[in-house]
Structure formats: structure tokens, C-alpha cells
Amino acid sequence: MAWLGLHWDEGPDKDGPYGPYRQSERRQHHREVAERLLAEGKAYRCFCTPERLEHLRAEQIAAGGTPKYDRHCFGLSQAEVKRRMADGEPSAIRFAVPEGEIVVHDLIRGDVVFSSEVIGDFIIVRSDGTAGYNFAAAVDDHEMAITHVIRGEDHLTNTARQLMLLAALGAEPPAYAHHSLILGPDGAKLSKRHGATSVGEYRARGFLPQAVTSYLALLSWSHGDREVLTLEELVAEFDLTELSASPAIFDVGKLGWINHEYILAMAAEEHERLAAAWLPAATPPPAVKALAAAFKPALTTYGDLSHEAAQILARPRIPDELVAEVARGGQSLRQFKVLRSAAQEWVTPEEARALLASYRREGAQRGLKPRDVLMPLRIALTGREHGPELQYVVAALSREDALQRVDDALERVLDPRPAESAKGADRPGPEKGRG
Fold first, then answer.
1. Which domain holds residue 244?
2. Residues 82, 192, 289, 337: which is the catalytic one?
3. Based on the domain organization, do 95 and 51 belong to the same domain?
């Protein structure tokens, strides 16, 4: 939540008037409220064993009914309850569900009606003394003055139970909003088989927090044609009542597009800072600057940067099928060595562009087209025919590294053996055998 830029006013790490905030620290208070409901006859002790409850459930399902508790312990006398408790017999506390209908006034779906007949008396305190979810949620929502409860539509039946508990406590319920579930592209409930499913996983993949927040907000809500909003804009414009009640489809591709838009709009300094975190720790600052600029136009997530940059940072071995291309550019590559040797240890992308312009002019004077001089150089520096603009490649390599790569490429031309068989063999120097 903090990574997403969503901060809370009070909680376990920030003092406020409604603590303690951990459910485990409110255990004694939950017991006191449960005892109050017992004393008022709104709850009762249940001594049914797990085996009996499972047998009851199986029977009800087999008969085509809705599984619910049969109130076996509802009529136990106080004397019997005390005797069985004195004997150490485990017991839970069940809420005595009143007859009638329960209406959930939902901000998104309108009124949703439940019949108490399908709910059954549910456990509010387990036999180990811990509060059940619905009981703890209802009590804590009331005690902490919660105004809005927003959760998935699969919690609607839980809300019905909590409303009954709040009514039994004489408490005013908060406003409820049950948003639609998030589905995968196949229309099934989003699960791990659809890919990453937690915010932490998207963070680990290099998505930006503002992109994740913006996309999640837009899953069931729209703001005209705008699909990229800042957190400040969401705070100002978001309206809970405008959420769609229809299920939302989670599209990782769309999230990637929004993330890409945020990257494009990012200031260069911030982009470089984030990029550095995804590059090897020993990457020199000039290389970080060049690589960040090189891949920014097409970068979907920062997690992609590690793979893309490795194609430049790792010293290449020229593939067999590209050796002839390097051979045709041998004279031009030697001219590049002259130009690069005369420049400083690191050049900026702008300086690299000027250097390459001189390199192209030298080739033009010999009647060569730009591709005839630039392609052999790209292959020599990266081992590939395609990649980011060459000026960024040159700027990402130190003078020594660039010169060594050109030497290695020229040496590869003199070693016609396939790349695999040549590995580990002694190779002649780049100028051996040449006049």
C-alpha cells in the first residue's frame, strides 16, 4: 500500500484514537461483546463436534438442501451449559439469527435482500476463544467508527451477517459497496494461472506504482476517454457510486501500455534513477544514462530492461551468419577505431552521434552507403543486426570496451571456424596476417 502511494491516517504503525488495530490485540474485547450477546439471549453456546457438523452438512447436501446449522444446542438449559463447561467440554458461541429478511443497502448494486432461512446460526467465537471473521469485523467496524466498507461482491453474504450483528448490538452500520470481481481474459475468476496476481508480483516485474493504481481504478470505472491519471486526479475525480456492477476483465497488456505511457512521460533524471536499480550494480553511470535513454521509447516495464541491456553490456561473439557482413566492413571498422581512440573514455549520446556522423562521412568518401558502414559496426559492438539507436550503444560502452569489441570482431573474421568450435581456442590478434 505504501509503495502504491496509498497512506493511512492511523494503524498499527501510526497512533490514533481507535487502537489497538490488530485483531489479535482486540481478543478480550471481542469476548466481552460475545458475553453480552449471550446474556441478552442473542447468542448461545454450541458443543457440537466437528464430526457431527460434517455429518449434518453431508445429509443436508444429499437431501438437496442448503447446509446450515440445525440449532441442536439452541435449547440447552443454563444448568446444562454450565455443567458441560465445568467438565471442560469445548464449546463455540453461535449467533441466534433472527427470522426475517436482511437488506444490504449497497452503493453500487442497490438493495440486495437475503432471507435469514438460508443463513443459519453462525459461529461468532470459536472453541479456542478467537473471534470469527464476521463477528470481529462487525464489532471493530462499530468500535472504530468505520464509515465505508468496500470489498468484493463475494462478501455480500458476509455483509448480511454483519448487519444482523450490528443490529443486535444496537449499532449504526457503515455504508457498504461491493465491487465486481476481477476476471481473467477467459472470463474465469482471476487466479495464478492468468499470471501475476498480487501487487507485489507486479512490483517485482518492474511496473510503476502509479501505473498499477491508475489501472486498478479504471477496471470498473471510467473518466471519459482518459486512461492515464495521476493519484491526485484520482483522489479528486473518483466516485464510488460510478463503479460498474459488471465483472471487470484484467488485461495485463493494457496495464503494460499504461505503464509504458508513464515511463514516456517521466523526467530523464527519475527514469535514469529507476533504470539503474534494474541494471547490474557495477554498471558505470555514463552507461546507465545511455541505456536508460536507449530503451525508454519502447520500454513496457523496468523488468524488461535487464534483458534488453544485457544484449549491450555483455561482450558479444559474432554469429557465423554475420561474419561476412563484418568482413565487408573491415576497413570502416578500422576507421571507427581511429575516431573512437581520439575521443574521451566515455562519450554522451550526443557526442556519440557526432562521432558516428564523422564515421558515415568517412565511408561516404569511399562510396559507401550509411548501412554499409553502420551495420558492420553494430554487429561488432553487439553481435546483432538490430537494437537501439547506435549512438546509445556507443555511449553505453567505454572507449576500451568499444575498441576491444571491434578488435574481437576483426579477429573473428580471420577465424572462419564456426563459433562453437572456435570457443576456447587460441585466436590470432586482429591485425595478424595483414599488411
1. 192-265
2. 192
3. yes
